[in-house]
Amino acid sequence: MPRRFDWRHLPLLAALAFTLAPLILLFNNGLKPRDEFMGDPLGFPGRLAFENIAEAWTKAGYGQAFWNSFIVGAATIVIVCLTAGMAAYALSKLNFKGSNLIMGVLLFTMSIPMGLFLVPLFYLWKNFQLMDTLQGIILIYAAIFLPFNIFMLRSFFVGIPNELLDSGRVDGCNELRLMLQIVFPLAKPAFLTAALLVGLWTWNEFFFANAFLQTDELKTVSTRYLVFTGRFQSDWTLISAAGVITIFPVVAAYIFLQRRFIEGITEGSLKG
Predict the structure, then answer these.
(1) Cα distance between residue 239 and residue 99, in whole Å
(2) pTM listed for this prediction
(3) What are the residues facing 229 on neighbouring strands?
């Protein structure tokens, strides 16, 4: 017998429609000819105008922007995973004085709006000659994403039995070997989740990238929308096509890695 509709699923279906509607509209307008968009912005296209994607890619220089975003994302992932992993190990497995204070400071930094750091960072980066460089934006991203990932990795490390570490110490392992050979391999799902989150954040971040990267050759993917906007008019067809180009790698990465992502989140929350 077919299952009866459960009305308790209605809020979930409403949330699904609320989430998918902007994506459908984005793809719909990004692949719609300009004349059809001007006549009916919400209607379905009579034909798929894939030339919008090619025009947006060429006009905004997405080839270089993709490469810049890849460099920034990869470097930030490496810095955050290594630094957050070591900090999380120390805060979860090493009982030292002041660890609770450090956790409180990290929690406090997570509550500060990122926009408050813009002016001090601008003067610091100008004096350090890090303005308009990929190295500068990588350091900013690493600092922004470290506190949350330290908390997430620590919640995973807490669930690793201390008996494993004690047996390693008996065998003569120092803390560095314990961390690299025992804790880090067991925490692969958590590290993959951290890497995926950092990658998505760096790919989508606009505020700091637009403020600290001024040269077109250094611009990241998220800032290329500005090419299609003007003071008096905007090309919404190409803006939508640029949106399709921007989100496609993110959606593809999440689809292929969603199982690992959910595993890392759930295991970390249960063990924490």
Answers:
(1) 48
(2) 0.85
(3) 234
In 3-state terms the chain splits into helix, strand, coil percentages (rounded to 5) of: 80, 0, 20
DSSP line for 162-215: HHHHHHHHHTT--HHHHIIIIIHHHTHHHHHHHHHHHHHHHHH--HHHHHH--S
Compute and round to an integer the Cα radius of gyration of the chain.
23
Mention every residue, 6+ apart, whose C-beta is less than 8 A from residue 91: 99, 102, 103, 150, 154
**Contacts of 169 by beta carbon, 8 Å cutoff, 6+ apart:** 178
Handedness of CA 6, 267, 272, 250 (dihedral sign): negative
Q: Which residues contact 158 (CB under 8 A, 6 or more apart)?
A: 92, 271, 272
Mean pLDDT of 162-168: 86
The widest CA-to-CA distance across the chain, in whole angstroms, is 75
DSSP notation for 233-264: -B-HHHHHHHHHHHHHHHHHHHHHHHHHHHHH
**Tokens representing 58?**
């060429």
If 0-12 CB within 10 Å is exposed, 13-18 middle and 19+ buried, where does residue 109 land?
middle
pLDDT in tens, 32-89: 888 888 888 778 888 888 898 898 999 888 999 999 999 999 999 999 999 999 999 9
How far, in Å, CA of 91 to CA of 85, rounded?
10
Torsion angles phi and psi, residue 36, rounded to 5? -70, -35
How many other CB atoms sit within 10 Å of the CB of residue 254? 12
In 3-state terms, what secondary structure has residue 229? strand
Mean pLDDT of the chain: 86
Q: How confident is the model over 241-245, as a mean pLDDT?
A: 88
Q: Which residue has the tokens 């030292």?
A: 96
Per-residue model confidence (pLDDT) at position 159? 85
Backbone torsions φ then ψ of 107, nearest 5 degrees = -65, -40
